[in-house]
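INTERNAL AUDIT FORM
Audit reference: QA-55
Scope: verify that the stored structure record matches its stored sequence.
Auditor: D.O.
Record contents follow.
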Amino acid sequence: MTATELYTKGARIWLPDPELVWRGAELLQDYKGEPCTLRVQYEEAEAPSQISMHLHRKIERKDTESEIQVKDKTSLPHLRNPEILIGENDLTSLSYLNEPEVLYNLKVRFAERNIIYTYCGIVLVAINPYEQLDIYNNDIIQAYSGQDMGAMDPHIYAVAEEAYKRMSRFEQNQSIIVSGESGAGKTVSAKFAMRYFAMVGGSQAETQVEKKVLASNPIMEAIGNAKTTRNDNSSRFGKYIEISFNRSNEIVGAHMRTYLLEKSRVVYQTKDERNYHVFYQLCASAALPELKKFSLMGADKFFYTSQGKNISIDGVDDAEDYQSLKDAMKLLGFQEKDIAMIFQIFAGILHFGNVKINAKDGESSEMAEGQDQGCFVHPKDPSIGVACRLFGVDESQMRTWICNKKITTVGETLTKPLTKAQAMFAQDALSKFIYSKLFDWIVTQINKALHSQTKTHRFIGVLDIYGFETFQKNSFEQFCINYANEKLQQIFNMHVFKLEQEEYVKEAIEWSFIDYYDNQPCIDLIEAKLGILDLLDEECKVPNGSDSNWCQKLYGKHMKHSHFQKPKIGMDTFIINHFADQVTYTSAGFLDKNRDAVSEEHVNIMKASEFELVGELFVDLTEDTGKGRVQALQTGPRGSSKQMKKTVGSQFRESLTLLMETLNSTSPHYIRCIKPNDLKASFVFEPKRAVEQLRACGVLETIRISAAGFPSRWTYPEFFQRYRVLALSRDINRKDFKKSCTVVLPKLIQDVDKYRFGKTKIFFRAGQVAYLEKLRADKLRACGIMIQKHVRGWQMKNKYKRLRTAALGVQRYGRGKLARRYAQYLRETRAATTIQKHWRGYKTRRTFHSVQHAVVKIQAAVRGFFGRRAFQKRLYEYKTRVIQSRVRTFLARKQFQKVLYGIVKVQGHFRRRKAKEELRLLKIEARSMENIKNVNKGLENKIIQLQQQLDSRKKENQDVVEKQNSAIKALEAEKDRLLISSTEGQKASNRLAELENELRQLRAELERERGEKQDLVSEKEILRQKYEQDVGVLKAENSSMKEELDAANRKLQEQMKISATTGGNEKWEEQRRMLIAEMESERQHHQRLVKEHNRLLQRFENMQGEMQMLTSPTKGHKRTPSDISQLSMESVASSVSPDQKEEEEKDDQGYGTEKKKRQAPTPPTAAAMEKQMKEAKPSPLATDSIPEKEDAEKTLPPADIDVALILKLQRLVKSLEKERDTIRKKFEALEEQAKEGTGFGDSAFKSLKMQELENENDKLKREVAKLMESIAKTTNFNKGAKSTPAGKEFLARKLSMRRKPDKQEEEAAKTFHDQFEAMTDELERRREECLQLRSLLAERSISTHAVAKQSYGGQDEMVNEDNELTMAYKSQRDIIRLLEQQLQKTEKELKSRTSEYEAELQDLRRENDKQNKLIQHSLSLTSEAKIEATMQHEITRLTSENLDLREKVDQQEEQIRKLKKMLKVYAKRLKEGEAAEIQAELEKEETKSVENVAHIRHRERNYMGMLEYKKEEETPVVKALILELKPKVATCLLPGLPAYLLFMCVRHTDFINDDEKVRSFLTSTINGIKKVVKKHHDDVERVTLWLANTCRFLHTLKQYSGEKQFQTENTPRQNEHCLRNFDLSEYRQVFSDLAVWIYQTLIKNMEATIQPSIVPAVLEHEAIAGLTGSKPSGLRGRSSSRAEDTPEYSLDSLMKSMNLFLRVLTQHAVDPELIKQIFRQVYYFLGASALNNLLLRKDMCNWSKGMQIRYNLSHMEQWLRDNKLQESGAGSSLEPIIQASQLLQARKTDSDVDSVCDMCSKLTVPQIVKILNLYTPVDEFEERVPISFIRKIQQKLKERESTDTSLLMDLKFSYSVTFPFNPSSIALETIEVPEQLNIAKLVVRC
C-alpha cells in the first residue's frame, strides 16, 4: 500500500494554523490522486487555558469545516498517528515522524500528564515546569541506578546513568551537552546531572570530593547567574565541568572551564532584570559584622543593582543564599581572608558604580582657572573614597585618571580631559574588567580545590551552554552564542547520523545515504580565512576602524555567500542564515566589545593596590598576551591602540575549538531544555514558543534524519506477538519467529523498500507501523463483528429453546396436577383404613406392655436385693484378708530394716575406727619420711640394715611357708581352706575401703601442701640469684687464682734454682711465709662462704620446721595460691575437726551443693605476708629480684596479718644472726691460733675436716636443690586447690597488671635454669679440687721445716733431696692447667648461652616496643575501634595465659602421679617381713580394684552435658566450630549442633566457676561469628547457618538460664543443667543484637539476589497468551551501554530463588516464626521494587499489563500458600502492587471514583495519580483516562487522613524483627561430638 492510499475518508491529518502552529482535522472525502480540493473538518479544540485564551477565541470563530488545495502528492497534509502511539516516551517510536506530531506529543505529555522529560532519539527533551517536582530525591536516583536507558521513563538521571555505564563498561570519556535558551532550565539540569554522578560515583553519604563538586554550584550561581525577564536564575556564561573518576569509577576531582561571561550586565540591566546574585546577597547581609566595614547599603541605593527597578525574586532569600555561598567557599578551601577580600572587591565595584561624573561648564565655580572643558568628580562624593579604600588604591589618582587620559607621542606625554560620556564608559569598562578578572580568579581557585591528587582514569563532562538566541536587536553576544551553537549542531548532526549508520551496519541491512543538513558553510562564513571574525579583528587593528566600515567590508566580501544577506533597509546591519533561523545583527558596538579595552592608567592604579588580591588580578597584564587586554581606551572614531592583544572573538574561537576537540574525543549525550511559555506559568504549553526552540535546538533535525531512514524498529518476537493476528496459521512457525515474520510481512506490505529484515530486528519506513496498526485494527474489528454475529445467533437460539421448553413445561404441569388430584383421593381413603387398623393394634399392645413391665420390675427388685446382700458378705471377707496380709508384711519388713540398720551401723563404727587408726599411722609415716629426707647421715646404713633384715626375714618366711605348706598338705581340710579364704576376702575388702579413704586423705593433704611449697619456691628463687652471684665471684676468684698459681710457679722455680745453686734457706722461708699468708687469706674467704652457706641452710631448715608446724593436722590449714608469680599464701585454720570434716564431705558432695557455696573465713592476703617478711630484714638478693612484684602489690588493699607467725619468723632470724656471730668468733679464734704457728698437725687435721665438711655441705646443697626442684614441679599455682576469695582477688589483680610469659619463654627459662645449675655444680666441684690442691701445697710448703726438723735433724735440704717436691709440684701444676682449661671451656659455653639469652631478651624488648606502638595507635582510634582493638588484645592475652596455665596443670598432674608412685615405694621399703608381703598383695589388689573401678566408671558414667577444653585450645575450638564449618557439613549434622556444642563449653566454664574463661570464650564466639559472616556475607547458606545457630544459642542461653519463665517446657534433667554461677543476661542481649545484624545481612543478600528478577518476573513476564502490551520502543528501546552477557531473568528464576531460600532456611532449622518474618521482608522488597519500577515506566501502565501483573503476583501468593507461609504477613506486603495492578484493570468512569478510592487503600495519593497519568491504551478499543476523572480522584483522595505524600516506596524500610523463645527438647547429655567437626582432640565430653 502506498502512502496516498491512506488519505481516505475519516483519515486524521494536521493542518497549519497561524495561532496554534498546527491543528488537527479529519478528511471528509477520499484523495483520488490528482490535484483537487479536499474537504476537511477541524477537531474541536480542548478547554483553553488562561494563557492562550485569545488563541482559542479566534479558533472558535472559525468554521469547523474547510477546504484545502492539494496540487500534488508533496503538498498532502501530514497524517496523524494512531491514538495508541500518542504520549510515547520516545518521539522516534512514532509511526509518522513530523513536526506537528512531535509538538502534539510533547504537549500531551507536558500539559496533560505533567511529564517534563521525553526522549527524541539520542536527545532528552526537558521542558521547564516552573514548579518544584519531587522527582529528584535519592530514592529516584537509586531507582535509575543500574537501569538501562529504555527500561525506565525518560529522566535526566537515565541519561546520566547511561553516560556513567558507558564510561565504566567501555572505558570511554563521556559528555553531557545541556543547551537551551535562557529560562529553559539548563543550569538546574546540569546541577541534577552532577548530583547523580556525586551519588553513584561516591558512597550513599557524600564524601568530601562529591561535596566539593556540588559546592561549586552555589558559588558559580552567585557570581555568574542573574535574573532576566525569562528566568529568575539565568546563567550568563557557559561552562564545561569535567568530573574525574578513578579506575574504581569513584569521583576524585573536577575541572571547570567557562565561556563568554556577560560582563555588560555588571553595569547595565534592562527593566525587571537584576545584576549578578552576589551583589544582592551582599546588600541583604550588610548588617553582618564582617560586612559592616564595606559600608554597604540596600540594593536600591546602588546604581549597578537598581537599574532593573526590581531587586527581589519571589521565593528567594538573598541573605540565606549569602550564608550558603560563604559555606561553599569554606568547603572548597577558600581562606577567610580571601573570602573577605572577594566580598570587599564586589562591594568596591558597587561603590565605584555610584561615583557620579559631572560635566564641566564655563560657569562652574568649582572648575579651576585655566582648565579645559571636560568632566570631574565632586570632591564631596563619598562613593569614590569608599571604593578606593575597598580597592586599596590612591583616591587622588583615581579622581584624576577617571576624568583624564594619557596620550603618548614621540617626544612627550600629554594628558587629555575626557568628556562625561567617555569617563562614564571608562568607569564601566573598569568595573566590568575587575569583575571578569575576579570571576576568572574564583574559577581558578575552585579548580585548584577540585583538582585530583590521584591519577584520573576517565571523566564525564557536563556542558551548560546557552542555546540559540534571536532578539529584535542582536549584538556581539548573540553572534558568539549562535556561532557556538552552529559548532555544537554540527557535532550533533554527525553523531546522530553516525548512530543511525552504526545501527544499520550492526543489523546488516541495505541502506542508502541519508541527506542531512550540513552547517559547515555557515561555520566557514564565520571562522574561515577572511570570515566575519577575521574581518572584525582586522578592523580592530585599523586606527580609524569603526563598526560601519566593518559592516561595509562584510557586504563587499560575503554578499554572494548563501548564508549571508544584506537587509533592504539600513547600512549597519547584516543577516546570517543559521541552522535554526535567520538572524539580523546590528554592527554597532561589535568593535568595542571585541576589543574589551580598559585604560592603562586605571590598570596601573589597580596594580599599585595595597591589597595583594587586587594587585594579583592586574599583575603582568601588559606582558600576558593570552588573557589581558590593556589598551588605550577608544574615546572616538580616531582612537588607536599601540598594543594589540587577542580580541574577545579570537579568544572565544580558540576556546570553542578546544571544546570541540574535547567533545569529539568523548561520547556525547544531549539534553535540550525547552521553555514552554514566557509568563513562567507552571505546566502551560505555548506551541508557538515551543516549536521555535525545537527548531533551534536540533530536535526536529533529529526527527528528520530518523524519518529519512527506518525510524520504526521491532524485534522479531515483539512483532510476532503484536501482529500475529494478521498471519495465517500455516505461515506461523513458533520455534522460529524470524522465519514467521519473513513469511508474513511481505504479504502485508508489498513494497519491499518500506521495510528491511535485520539480524534481530525489522526496520520500517515512516508510516508503515501506522499502516500495520490499521490492518490490525481492521482485522480485530472484523473478528469482533464475527464474534458478535455468532454470539447474537447463539442468544436467539437460546431464546427460542427457552420459549419452547416453557410451553411444554406448562402442559406437563397441568396434566400432572389433575392426575395428582385423583391419586390424592385414593391415598386418603387408604390412609384412613390403615390408621384405624394401626390405632386398634396400638391400644391393645399398650395394655399388654404395661402389665408386663410391672411384673418384670418386681422380679428385678427382689433378685437385686438378694444379690447385693451376698456381694457385701464376700467383699467384707476379701478386705479382711488384704488388711491382715499388709499388716504382717509391714511388721516383718520393719523388723528386717531394724536389724539391717544395726548391722550397717556397727560395721560403719568399726571401719571408721580402723580408718582413723590407719590414718594416724600413715601421718606418722609421712612425718618420719620428711625426717628421713632431712637426715642424710646414717640413712644408707639404715637402708642396708633394713635390707639385711628383709633378706633374713625372707629366708625365715620361706622356711615357715614350707612348713605351713607341708602342714596344709597333711591336713587337707576343706572347711579350714574355705574359712581362710573367706577371712582373707573380708580383710581385702576392708583394706580396700581403708586405702580408698587413705587415697582421699592423701589427695586433700597434697592439695594443702601445694600452697605450702610456694614458700620453698620463693626460697629457690633467692638461692638461684645467690648462685648467680656466686658464679660471678667464682669467675673473679678463678682469674685471681690463675694469676696466683702462675706467680707461685714462677716463685717455686726461682726458689728451686736458688736452692740448687746457692741453697738460700732464708729466701725459701720467706717464700713459704708468703704462701702461708696467701693460704690464710684464701681460707678466710672460704670460711666466709661456708658461714654464709650454713646460715642459708639453717634458715632453710628453720623454714622447713615452720612449714611442718603450719601443716600440722591439728590445725587443719588449707593453702591456696594467690599469684602466678610464685608468692606464698597463708593457711587458714578450719573451725571443724577432721572427723566432722570427713563426715561433712561424705554427706555434702556434688555440683552446686551447700559445701561448694559455703565461704571460708577471710585469710590474710599474700601482699600482707610479703610486706611483713620484708620488714623482718629480708635478703638483699630477694629484694632486688622482685621489684616488679613490690610495685604491683603496692596497689593492693591491706588485709589481716598473722602477728604470731611474723614474730616467730623474727625470732628465728635473730637466732640465726646470733649463731652467725658465734661461728664467726670461733673462726677468728682459730685463725689467731693458726697465725701463732702452733699445731701444724692440728691444722692439717682441721684442713681435712674442713674439706670433709665442705663435701658434706655440697651434698646438702644438692639435696636442697633437688628438694626445691621437686617442690617447684609439684606446686600448683592455678587449680591445685580451691582459692580463697583473697587469693582470687590477688590473682585477678596480678593477671590484669602483668603479662604472663608465653610457653616458649617459660621453656627457655627452665632450660637455662637447669643448665645453670649443672654448670654451678661442676664449678663448685672443680673449685673444691683447686682449694684442696692449694691447701695441700701450702701445708706441704709450710711443714717442710717441721718435717726436716723431725726426720732429718733440722736439715731442710734433705727434704727435697730427690727433687720429689718439684715432681709433685709439676704434677699438681698439670692438673691445675687441665682444670683451668675445663673451667675456661665452661666459661665460654656460659658466655655463648648468655649471649643467646640476651638476644632473646632483645627480641622480647622489640616485641614490647611493638606492643607499645600498638597501644599508642589504639589511643588515636575512635571509641568503637578502640574498644574492638582492646577486646581483641584481651582475647589474645587471655588465650595465651590459658594455654600456659593449662600446660602447667598437666605438668603438675604428671608430677602428682610420680609422687604417688614414690610414696608407694617408700612404704614398701619401710615394711618388714610378713608386713612387706601383705603390703605387696594389698597393692596388687588395689591395682586390680582400680582397674575394675575404671571399667565400671566407663560403663556406668553419666554425662552432664558439658564439654571441657583447655584454655589454650579456645582459639582452635572456635576456629573449628565457627570459622571452618561449611554449610554442607552442617546440613549432615544435628540442626543447631554448633550452638549446642558452644553452650556445652559455656556450661563447663560455669561448672568450674571460671568467669575469665567464660568471658573470653563468649567474646571469641561473637567475634568468630562476626568474622565468618562478614567474610561470607554474599553466601546465603553460610549466613543462614549462623543466623540459625545464633538464634539457637540465644534460645539455649534462655532455656538454661535458670529463670522460671524459660523453664516451663524443660524436663527435670534439663533443669539440672541450668547455669549455677553465671548470669549471662547481658550476653543474651549481645547475641540478640548479633542475630539482628545477621538477619539484616541475610535480608540484604536475598534482596540483592532477587533484585534482577523482580521486574522481569512481576512486570515483564507475560504468562497469559493473547494479552500483550508491547509497543514500538523507538531509538531508546536499545541501550548502548547494555552488557552483552547480561543473563535473562523470568518468573521461573524468581521462584527458583524463593525455593532456594526456603530450602536453605529449612535445612538449617531456622525458627518457623523467623522464616515468616524473613519472607515478609523479602516480599515487601519485591512489591516495593515492582511498584517503584511501575511508577517510572509508562509502557507498563495499561490494562493488559495490569492483568499480567496480577496473574504473576497470584503465583507468588500461591507459593506462600503451598509453603504454609500465608499467615506470615508476606501476602499483605504485596497489597500496594496488587492494588496498582487492580487500578490498571478497573473501569475509569466518573461513577467509579468512590470504588477506585476504596480499592486503592494501600496506595498514596501521588502514586494513584501517577498511575492514572501514565495509563496508556495498547489497542484502539481502550479509552484513555479522562482528565476530569483524575481531577475527581484527587478531590476525593483529599478526604484521606493519611499524610504520606511520597511517590516511591522506601526500599530500605524493614519490619522490626523479633526472636520468639523456642526451647529445645534435645538433652545435652545425649549430644555427641561428630568427627567431621575435628574437635574431638580439643574437647572432652563430661
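Auditor finding: record pair retrieved intact. The CA atoms of residues 1078 and 1338 lie 9 Å apart.
Action required: none
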